[in-house]
Specification:
The complex is a heterotrimer of chains A (328), B (239) and C (289). Chain A is mostly helical and 328 residues long. Chain A is 71% helix and 2% strand. Chain A has one domain. In chain C, helix 8 runs parallel beside helix 10. The chains are: A mainly alpha (328), B alpha/beta (239), C mainly alpha (289).
Chain lengths: 328, 239, 289
């Protein structure tokens, strides 16, 4: 899969402008983070936007204080992962059910949105960074070549950095899922009680997976901050949270390709819709979500996979299973 | 008593005002096979769930091979080398037989080659080879029970706790399960909660009878079966 | 003394508005085990319908108490027939579909009313208590909440629907209590829940500047009130509305309204961590089982 990804990332700039492509790659990474946590870990996180936003704010605040991007990027991801670990431990060690988990992650996102929106004024300053309330934080140093703060990475270069990060994250996620940890995570998704009876510490493993997903979302957020050159509370908004889930559902949970393709296609659709004023963007996204849940609950990629497998019906069962697993 | 693998003292559990388990002292020796019987609500399942860590006892203590495991979470008890099967078949439905067993093997074998080898070994022992790449969701009830027993024995447990292993099985399946249980029993002590008296007769040596949250009687199979109080309970007359 | 009176009214108002915001969601969740993520948008629509009716010359109270609930109930019936009934028993899918619905309604409102703030003035003037001013409309909100709770208690106690509702809430696993027409009962329940959401959105509309995204301000509070309340509909609603209303007002008085809201949400997360089955799931267990 990674072998296909590299030529695709190189060819795409010939077709779509790199400014749009950059954000599509970032969205894809964000979707992949939820695909990992929800699709493979069975953790119904309704608030992945929280970690996306924290990554973006973390980068902006870090970059303003350090005046340099490499440390800011690493710090943003690490800080978000730490917050996710605490939140995850609280939820998983509290044995909250699926639905409560969904609600709590959603509520946490809303708390962050509320709080960040209200941080206008002098009381809310972190070092050299003013949180700026609803208007957010502009004017922070953007990505540059490590060790050379004057060599900014922007335009096409930023696209290649984001695309390379996406491919790298995809490769790491693939490795993770093939490892014992990944297989155990899938086992936990299938039957948490049984995995506990086999001696696996379900709570610790779920917390760890949740944290890894948050770190990936934070990386996407930090890159997004560089793309947009401003961070605002909208990153924590309900619409943002919903969009991530829409991407994954359209593409299909339980696959790695699904969320990536879902994010890229839905992101591009949003971009096209943004260029006209006839149909409202939110309306279309909402309609897509309803229709997919009703008519294509497993998403596009698994549905196409099903068709593909059906077309090869005569294939011996063993080989088919292997194909299924490789695609997954 | 060096060969005691499981001991409880004064084990009790209340649910609100209801006493489900009342001051139970219990002892199990290495490689012993013990059946727990009793009418519905007698406390045997509550007792079982306290042992596995699924329920926290209100009072009393549980010791396993000298470790006090009272209040431990399930996974910690399992990690001691305790194999557990709950009442409802609990398997990973969306995964194949091979993947299910592999997950159990991987808990005990760090190297994936060892885990693979152990998986194949267990599948062969249970004669599940032909269906090893089928999804659990597609298997018959008896086969799913068999896979779950496979999960239990993969970790080479020294203590095995089984809640109604024969429930919903055909007579042929029962014979097969009985054989496997005897095989596991060669290396592990075993507690079986069971309703089906025919199945109990076919495997049991020693029996503990629960009634109204307490241990009513503990003796050899034949003497338990001829006990008038036990008969009364099973016929519905409360003693 | 004056301060205590003013604060008393404010606390009561905070609790009453939480009851109103949550009632529709509580009915739908309690009876159908359906979490309607478009609840906030049902309220937003109730608000817009009220404002539109008032602008057309309808009396504001008629618009709030009759037109808005009926119109939103109608929308609810359409939503139930088209979407919800295909997803019964699939809790997560319902949440996702209603989330889509929420976005859809936000889009519709944006297209019709534009992304600007609309509002009507409060129909009841405020008055002074010593050095402080009390918003007269607060009393109306408190009154509506009290009437609503009384009506809900009466319906639960005295009507056939209420009997079925109590049966369903006690044993949600037994579909038999629904009798021979579960479809009709689900549809009625969803319509009633929608009407309550419409009513809440309507009576709160004069207090807020309405925008298409207004629903988001309500949804979190409604959820946590319902979920924290637990399985007992009325007792849960009242106990958790009281708890969160007091927390909200305490922090609003001592720090700021925004911190009040944040405190409310944080309290909810902590409460759910400690009582995963809600307040009534923990303390009223003997009665529900």
């Amino acid at each position: 899969m990674t072998a296909v990804a590299v030529p695709v990332t190189l060819v795409l700039p010939q077709v779509i402008d790199s400014y749009t492509l950059t954000v599509l790659a970032i969205y894809a990474m964000l979707a992949l983070s939820l695909g990992l946590v929800w699709g493979y870990g069975g953790i119904l996180c309704f608030g992945q936007a929280a970690f996306f936003g924290l990554g973006a704010y973390g980068y902006a605040i870090g970059a303003l204080n350090v005046g340099e991007s490499t440390i800011a990027l690493i710090a943003a991801v690490a800080a978000t992962a730490a917050i996710a670990a605490v939140l995850g431990a609280m939820m998983f060690y509290g044995r909250l059910g699926d639905v409560y988990l969904a609600i709590i992650t959603l509520v946490v996102t809303l708390i962050l949105y509320r709080f960040m929106s209200s941080t206008a004024g002098d009381a809310y300053v972190l070092g050299k960074a003013r949180l700026g309330g609803f208007n957010g934080i502009p004017g922070f140093p953007t990505l540059h070549v490590p060790g050379n703060p004057s060599a900014y990475i922007w335009g096409d270069a930023l696209y290649y950095v984001c695309a390379a990060s996406l491919v790298l994250v995809l490769a790491l996620v693939t490795l993770l899922l093939r490892s014992g940890f990944g297989r155990v995570a899938v086992g936990i998704r299938e039957n948490e009680t049984r995995m506990g009876l086999l001696g696996y510490d379900v709570r610790a493993r779920k917390t760890l997976l949740f944290t890894i997903g948050a770190a990936v979302a934070a990386l996407a957020g930090a890159l997004y901050a560089n793309w947009g050159e401003i961070v605002t509370p909208r990153l924590f908004g309900l619409t943002q949270s919903a969009e991530i889930i829409i991407w994954c559902i359209v593409g299909g949970f339980g696959t790695r390709l699904g969320p990536i393709l879902g994010a890229a296609s839905m992101g591009y659709l949003k971009f096209l819709l943004g260029q006209q004023s006839l149909v409202d963007n939110t309306l279309v996204m909402g309609l897509i979500l309803i229709l997919v849940v009703l008519f294509l609950p497993r998403g596009l990629v698994p549905a196409l996979e099903g068709l593909w497998i059906a077309a090869w019906q005569r294939m011996p069962a063993r080989q088919m299973q292997r194909r299924r697993r490789n695609l997954a | 008593m060096p060969d005691v693998v499981l001991e409880t003292s004064g084990l009790s559990r209340h649910f609100g005002g209801v006493v489900a388990l009342d001051n139970v002292d219990f002892l199990l020796r290495a490689r012993e096979l013990r059946c727990l019987i009793g009418p519905n609500g007698a406390g045997k399942s509550t007792f079982f769930n306290c042992l596995t860590g699924l329920i926290r006892p209100s009072e009393g203590h549980i010791f396993m091979r000298g470790d006090e495991t009272t209040g431990w979470p399930v996974h910690r008890i399992a990690s001691l080398g305790v194999g557990i099967k709950t009442q409802v078949p609990s398997v990973m439905d969306g995964l194949t037989v091979h993947e299910n067993i592999w997950l159990a093997a991987s808990r005990h074998h760090r190297h994936s080659d060892d885990a693979e080898r152990r998986t194949d070994e267990i599948i062969a022992r249970l004669s599940l080879g032909p269906m090893s790449h089928q999804f659990l969701a597609h298997l018959a009830h008896g086969e799913r029970q068999l896979v779950e027993l496979g999960l239990v024995m993969t970790g080479d447990p020294w203590l095995v706790l089984l809640d109604e292993p024969a429930a919903g099985m055909s007579p042929e399946d029962m014979v097969r399960i009985g054989e496997i249980l005897r095989e596991i029993n060669e290396t592990a002590a075993m507690i079986i909660v069971e309703h089906d008296m025919k199945f109990v007769r076919s495997i049991a040596s020693r029996i503990t009878v629960f009634h109204q949250g307490r241990v009513l009687l503990e003796d050899e199979m034949e003497r338990v079966m001829s006990d008038p109080t036990v008969r009364d309970i099973y016929l519905g007359r409360t003693a | 003394m004056d301060l205590i009176a003013v604060m008393g009214v404010e606390f009561l108002y905070a609790v009453a508005s939480l009851v109103l915001i949550s009632a529709g969601l509580a009915v739908v969740f309690g009876m159908m085990r359906v979490i309607n993520l478009a609840h906030g948008e049902f309220m937003m629509l109730g608000g817009y319908i009220t404002i539109t009716a008032v602008n057309l010359g309808v009396d504001v109270f008629v618009a709030m108490v009759i037109i808005a609930p009926l119109a939103v109930a109608l929308i609810g019936v359409v939503v139930e027939r088209l979407i919800i009934r295909h997803l019964y028993g699939r809790l997560v899918d319902t949440m996702l579909a209603t989330w889509g619905l929420s976005l859809f309604f936000i889009g519709v409102a944006t297209v019709i009313f534009g992304n600007t703030t609309t509002g009507i003035s409060t129909p009841i003037p405020g008055f002074a208590v010593g050095d402080y001013r009390i918003n007269g409309y607060s009393f109306f909100i408190i009154l509506v909440a009290v009437l609503l709770l009384t009506a809900m208690a009466a319906i639960l106690k005295m009507t056939r629907l209420g009997l079925i509702a109590r049966g369903t809430m006690a044993r949600s696993d037994i579909a038999a209590v629904l009798g021979h027409e579960p479809e009709l009962i689900y549809m009625t329940t969803f319509a009633v829940g929608s009407a309550l959401s419409g009513l809440a959105g309507a009576v709160l509309a004069p207090l807020v500047g309405l925008v298409p995204g207004s629903g988001a301000a309500y949804i979190a509070k409604a959820f946590i009130t319902v979920i924290a309340g637990g399985p007992q509909l009325l007792a849960g609603l009242m106990s958790s509305a009281t708890f969160f209303g007091v927390v909200n007002q305490l922090f609003t008085f001592t720090i700021s309204p925004v911190i009040g809201e944040v405190a409310l949400l944080v309290a909810a997360v902590i409460l759910l961590r400690m009582l995963p089955r809600g307040i009534t799931g923990r303390f009223f267990r003997a009665r529900s089982s």
